[in-house]
Design brief:
The structure holds 2 protein chains of 2 kinds.
Chain A: E1 3-10, H1 18-26, E2 31-34, H2 41-51, H3 60-75, E3 78-81, H4 88-101, E4 108-113, H5 121-126, H6 140-143, E5 147-152, H7 157-164, E6 169-171, H8 179-189, H9 196-209, E7 236-241, E8 245-249, H10 259-266, E9 276-277, E10 282-284, E11 289-294, E12 297-301, E13 304-306, E14 311-331, H11 335-352, E15 357-365, H12 379-383, E16 387-396, H13 399-403, H14 412-415, E17 430-441, E18 448-453
Parallel strand pairs in A: 1-2, 2-3, 3-6, 4-6
Antiparallel strand pairs in A: 1-7, 4-18, 5-14, 7-8, 8-12, 9-10, 10-13, 11-12, 14-16, 14-17, 15-16
Chain B: E1 3-7, E2 12-19, E3 22-29, H1 35-41, H2 44-51, E4 59-64, E5 69-74, H3 95-100, E6 103-107
Antiparallel strand pairs in B: 1-6, 2-3, 3-5, 4-5
Classes of the chains: A alpha+beta, B alpha+beta.
């Protein structure tokens, strides 16, 4: 029974490299896939690239390769990542320099281009693509001149092609997270691209691994106190054959792999469990089962697949104004009452400055800034709290309007209710990036696989 | 039989995630026998009443009995989503615990 062993090395851009390094050193993985792209990441990378044409990818991946890339290459572990972001060629070139500098002769670096289609929008509009928002909000005409990036979520094909050409590292842009895991499963188990049930299993391997530590006892609501050695949290590993499917983790690391830890990740960010749509296959996990199969080993069964969708998801980031948030802290007695007065003063001052805001929001950190409506604001309990942080946030169309809040905060230390404490420096006005999810036909996209061989 | 109010988190655990302005919260029974209680008590109407105008769109509940769990998908639930949202928790990482803070009614001997 041929099986493939894959590790999840990264949950997002900014995640720790420790688990990936440990996994490469101490586990028997054959592949490691590292996800860096959340919904907004590409727009942030697009802004970085605009300022510096050499930027636009996750440099953190280079740090990871410096720490464990040579080790992985010597052990024959092949690594896949979407860290290329908005500058796949840029990351491939940096990896080439690293590999040459490390003397890794014969290493093949694969990369995939073509998912960024901003330049094609006018042509697609002319061809009748409407770019209707999947969430039923807004008019495309209003945002079409403010777009930063337009990336299509693509499936396994170009990544698999890199593996077939012998790539030791594959770099992509907006591949789906799960396709980075599906491609090696297909490659090793020779799965046909219309074997929907087998494809669905490969996707679920990706789904359980793509968030790194969250699949191995991190962010674990069920029993977080009982997770061993969270300071050395391991990331999950999948052992997949055509007949069996086990989630586990590397030896000698922290974390937990249990029915409950797998369940919490299993439905995470899935909408309809009977129709989990990916470019590769429509996955049905509505009858799936997770059972303990040993210490830190969980077996997955009952995953089904259906034909893949005709359309692909395109996500565009666009300029949507500005926002700024500022804070002031207050202590007992009457901390909440003082914080409310400070907010009231600020709102009056902003009104006098003729602020034009799309939205103004006031929360009290320590009381209701996370649970909002659901927080317990019983006046008897609130009256005697030790301390609270007033947070005011505004969203505006112009930078000038957003800036109106900035100089008003620190003066309240001397000019407002007693004991206000200003911290963290002056608030920074941020650009708001709107997301525009839409569907486009598959044939609107031309993806290309490339290979660089280190001489 | 006497009834009592409990927090949902006494019999369930879960996790929240986001896609744009949509929040999804998956909820699992802490013991298999609690699945039926959750199915009975945590209806979409009750979830809507619990969140009030924090969730401005519709709420759909999907049942996954084999996992003794449910997936709740709530649209227009994150104040516009990242980065539109002015909320401190714009990705709704704490929507899971906010959900599990819901009060439900059980028979004395049910748990």
């Amino acid at each position: 029974m041929k099986k493939v062993i894959i590790g999840g090395g990264q949950g997002f851009w900014g995640d720790s490299n420790d688990a990936a390094i440990h996994m490469v050193k101490h586990s028997n993985i054959q592949y490691m896939a590292c996800d860096y792209l959340a919904e907004l990441t590409l727009s942030i990378m697009a802004r970085q690239k605009l300022k510096n044409p050499k930027a636009g990818y996750a440099r953190d991946f280079l740090d990871m390769m410096c720490a464990c890339g040579e080790d992985a290459w010597q052990k024959g572990i092949r690594i896949l990542t979407d860290a290329g972001g908005m500058n796949v060629e840029g990351l491939a070139e940096s990896l080439k320099q690293w590999a040459e500098g490390s003397g890794l002769r014969g290493m093949k670096i694969g990369y995939v281009t073509g998912d960024e289609i901003k330049a094609d929008i006018p042509r697609l509009l002319a061809e009748g693509v409407t770019f209707e928002n999947m969430d039923d909000v807004g008019d495309f005409q209003e945002i079409k001149d403010k777009i930063f990036n337009a990336n299509v979520y693509f499936g396994h094909e170009p990544t698999l092609s890199c593996l077939e050409q012998g790539a030791d590292i594959v770099v992509t842009g907006r591949s789906t997270d799960s396709a980075l895991f599906l491609a090696p499963v297909m490659h090793e188990l020779s799965i046909h691209p219309d074997d929907w049930d087998q494809l669905a299993r490969g996707i679920m391997a990706g789904h359980l691994l793509e968030c790194g530590g969250q699949g191995a006892g991190g962010n674990f609501d069920y029993g977080w106190r009982e997770v061993p050695r969270m300071d050395e949290l391991g990331f999950p590993i999948a052992e997949v054959s055509k007949e069996d499917f086990i989630i586990t983790k590397a030896p000698d690391c922290g974390g937990i792999i249990s029915e409950q830890s797998c369940k919490e990740q299993f439905l995470y960010e899935v909408h309809d469990p009977a129709n989990y749509i990916t470019p590769d296959v429509t996955v049905d996990i509505s009858q799936a089962m997770l059972t303990q199969a040993g210490e830190n080993r969980v077996r997955l069964r009952g995953v089904k697949g259906k034909e893949r969708p005709e359309m692909l998801k395109l996500s565009m980031g666009y300029h949507a104004g500005y926002k700024v948030a500022a804070m002031l802290s207050f202590a007992w007695p009457d901390a909440y009452e003082k914080a409310c007065m400070a907010a009231d003063i600020l709102i009056k001052k902003l009104k006098r400055k003729n602020l034009k805001a799309e939205e103004i929001r006031v929360d009290y950190i320590g009381l209701n800034a996370l649970h909002l409506n659901v927080a317990d604001m019983d006046p008897e309990k609130v009256k005697d709290i030790n301390e609270v942080v007033m947070r005011i946030a505004i969203r505006t169309l112009t930078k000038e309007d957003a800036y109106k809040l900035v100089p008003e905060i620190s003066p309240l230390q001397l000019n407002g209710p007693p004991g206000a404490s200003f911290f963290g420096g002056r608030a920074k006005v941020q650009e708001v990036i709107g997301l525009w999810p839409t569907l486009i036909p598959r044939d609107a996209l031309t993806l290309r696989s490339h290979i660089i061989e280190i001489k | 039989m006497a009834k009592k109010d409990i927090y949902l988190n006494q019999i369930a655990h879960g996790r929240s995630g986001d896609k744009g302005d949509t929040s999804n919260v998956c909820i699992f029974a802490r013991k298999p026998e609690y699945y039926a209680i959750i199915k009975r008590e945590v209806t979409t109407d009750k979830v809507q009443a619990h969140f009030g105008d924090m969730v401005k769109g519709e709420i759909i509940r999907y049942e996954v009995e084999t996992l003794k769990g449910f997936n709740y998908v709530m649209t227009h639930a994150l104040g516009g989503g990242a980065t539109h949202s002015l909320r401190l928790d714009s990705l709704g990482k704490s929507m899971g615990s906010a959900f599990l803070r819901m009060k439900i009614q059980v028979e004395e001997d049910e748990i």
